[in-house]
């Protein structure tokens, strides 16, 4: 699962990292306690194959929904069944995106209490997660809102120490294929990147942090150093 994350990079940094040509989210500012339904940067491609950094509401809403807020959580989607679920399957083949993060938070149970951990990839300031997006249209105003979800799979390696699910990280070599609309067999691509993420799970690390309150860089500090 990935229910809270940090992204301490500017959109200029994201444009450089993901070789994007357009910034549609200039007002983004780094954050360290991002929750579902927040507006986050995602990376997508347009019809010409150019990469764009733009805003999306973190919790996917399918185009056919009459409400922006659904009765069930959609900030994560299980990769094993995403192509079958009505909420997500319309995005699998043509509306894949990258969700940039600096790291994410996961909780373990210790003596009946929940202990948060910061999960990150040493040496990487930003990691691109496999995501899906969808455009939802407000039936009253006609406003179109991009919404997105993060794909997860069974936890393996180091990441299984903090949760039985983990987000699917995209390796740089997989990003072009992931974003390309020419590769329309989304289910096959999801399977491929999921297996790669499992093989690379031990490239991550984690440490305990204090309970998440507010939003600031101190949330990433090790608990034993505070």
Question: What does the model show?
Answer:
With 226 residues, the chain is mostly beta strands. It has one domain (4-225): SOS response associated peptidase-like (hypothetical protein yedk fold), CATH 3.90.1680. It is built from three helices and 13 strands. The chain has helices spanning 11-18, 172-179, 186-199, and strands at residues 4-7, 22-23, 31-34, 39-45, 51-58, 76-78, 96-101, 103-110, 113-120, 127-137, 144-154, 165-167, 205-208. The strands form two sheets. Strands 2, 4, 5, 6, 7, 10, 11 and 12 form an eight-stranded mixed beta sheet that branches. The protein has a five-stranded antiparallel beta sheet with strand order 3-1-8-9-13, with no helix packed on it. Strand 8 and strand 9 form a beta hairpin. The longest helix is centred in the C-terminal third of the chain and has 14 residues, at 186-199. It is globular, with a radius of gyration of 17 Å. The two termini are 26 Å apart. The mean pLDDT is 94.
Short note summarizing the structure:
This protein has a single domain, classed as hypothetical protein yedk fold (Alpha-Beta Complex), CATH 3.90.1680. It contains three helices and 13 strands. The protein has helices at residues 11-18, 172-179, 186-199; strands spanning 4-7, 22-23, 31-34, 39-45, 51-58, 76-78, 96-101, 103-110, 113-120, 127-137, 144-154, 165-167, 205-208.
């Amino acid at each position: 699962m990935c229910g809270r994350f940090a992204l301490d990079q500017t959109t200029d940094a994201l444009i450089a990292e993901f070789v994007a040509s357009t910034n549609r989210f200039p007002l983004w500012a780094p954050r360290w306690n991002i929750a579902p339904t927040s507006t986050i940067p995602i990376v997508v491609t347009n019809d010409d194959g150019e990469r764009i950094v733009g805003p999306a509401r973190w919790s996917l809403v399918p185009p056919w929904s009459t409400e922006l807020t659904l009765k069930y959580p959609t900030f994560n989607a299980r990769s094993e069944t995403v192509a079958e679920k009505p909420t997500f399957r319309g995005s699998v083949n043509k509306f894949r995106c990258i969700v940039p993060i600096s790291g994410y938070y996961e909780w373990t149970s210790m003596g009946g209490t929940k202990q948060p951990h910061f999960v990150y990839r040493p040496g990487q300031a930003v990691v691109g997660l496999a995501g899906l997006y969808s455009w939802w249209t407000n039936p009253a105003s006609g406003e179109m809102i991009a919404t997105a979800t993060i794909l997860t799979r069974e936890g393996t390696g180091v990441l299984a120490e903090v949760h039985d699910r983990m987000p699917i990280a995209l390796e740089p070599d997989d990003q072009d294929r992931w974003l390309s609309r020419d590769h329309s067999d989304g289910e096959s691509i999801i399977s491929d990147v999921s297996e790669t993420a499992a093989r690379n799970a031990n490239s991550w690390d984690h440490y305990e942090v204090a309970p998440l309150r507010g939003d600031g860089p101190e949330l990433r500090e090790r608990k034993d150093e505070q």
